[in-house]
Amino acid sequence: MAFHVLVTGAAGFIGYHTCQALLQRGDRVVGIDNLNDYYEVSLKQSRLSKLVSNEAFQFQKMDLADRDGVAKLFADNRFDRVIHLGAQAGVRYSLENPFAYIDSNITGTLTILEGCRHHRVPHLVYASSSSVYGNNIKLPFAESDSVDHPISLYAATKKSDELMAHTYSHLFGVPTTGLRFFTVYGPWGRPDMALFKFTKAILEGKPIDVYNHGNMKRDFTYVADIVNAVVAVSDSIPTANEHWNSEHPDPASSSAPYRVFNIGNHQSVDLLHFIAVLEKAIGKKAIINLMPMQAGDVPNTYADIQALHQAVGYVPTTSIEVGVPRFVEWYRDYYNITNS
Fold it and tell me: Which ranges of the chain does DSSP label H, i.e. alpha helix?
């Protein structure tokens, strides 16, 4: 059965790959994106050019905070699923331009929730983030952990998205599933992410900044694994947890049709090892500039993915030894770099 799916942030990294996966399985996809200049717009347009070549894909340039535009979009279509990936990304940029995060991540999510409410969309899947765990020190991070102490505005907006989604699930019966992504990487990735920045700098013979003096670990998750989970979750509509107990509430479920899942690789990899794998893929050593920890950053992320495995059978299959060389191959091809 083919679905009619709305994907927000369709020109973005995860949005592009999600649209491709949906189209490949035969769904009809409407993608929206405001094509902002947070990073090079030409990369977003290149992703879009691959999507629009498929007649089952329709693109509309639109800002999520445009209430009237989003309302008309929902009125003009009957969506079977909404996959809300559009957001203002970046932890550090939220320290510089906080209003962009309120406009996109909170107001934008509200317009999507309103569209799903008034047009009775069967399932809303939306992007949250591992950043909601803040300075939690219990590893791996589990959906049952407290996420009440964010340490960046970006994280606060993602926690707000989860709270708003629960409210709409409770008040209006909108089935919602939030996905806490853990350090996604892969071909067509974002230029503000570490792998992209490191690859560019190493190829150009420039130093890379490595924070917390290299004492960093991340749950690096390959984009194809992420997208497999996003699509599987979109097909798994949440229902009320009949065992939910308000005296001992489970933060990841509810008496409403609401769920929250981690999506990670279930491995915490030393950043310096990650860089070593990248050096091998490029065939060139990095010039490493060790730096102190940045505000809003955390030293370690590590996803407990048991709940997602139980729900949809999610098993990540791509190690960094496989995924990083695939990114480097894409980067060389996209930027026409034959040697370094």
Answer: 13-24, 41-52, 67-76, 93-96, 98-101, 108-118, 153-172, 194-203, 223-234, 271-282, 306-312, 320-334
Residue 238 is classified by DSSP as -
Query: Tokens representing 65?
Result: 């905070």
Amino acid at 97: N
Residue 57 φ then ψ, to 5°? -110, 135
End-to-end CA separation in angstroms for the chain: 48
The letter for the amino acid at 301 is T
299 neighbors 214 (Cβ within 8 angstroms): no
The tens place of each residue's pLDDT in the chain, 340 residues long, gives 789 999 999 999 999 999 999 999 999 999 999 999 989 999 999 999 999 999 999 999 999 999 999 999 999 999 999 999 999 887 778 888 899 899 999 999 999 999 999 999 999 999 999 999 988 888 899 999 989 999 889 999 999 999 999 999 999 999 999 999 999 999 999 999 999 999 999 999 999 988 888 888 999 999 999 999 999 999 999 999 988 888 888 889 999 999 999 999 988 898 999 999 999 999 999 999 888 887 767 778 889 999 999 999 999 999 999 999 999 999 999 999 986 5
Q: Which of 101, 154, 222, 258 is catalytic?
A: 154
> In angstroms, what CA-CA distances link 259 with 75, 176, 309?
26, 7, 14
* Separation of alpha carbons 98 and 106, rounded Å: 12
Please give the model's pTM, rounded to 2 decimal places: 0.95
**258 catalytic residue (yes or no):** no
Half-sphere exposure of 25 (CA within 13 A, CB side): 17
| Angstrom distances, CA of residue 320 to CA of 3, 12, 155, 266 | 33, 22, 25, 12
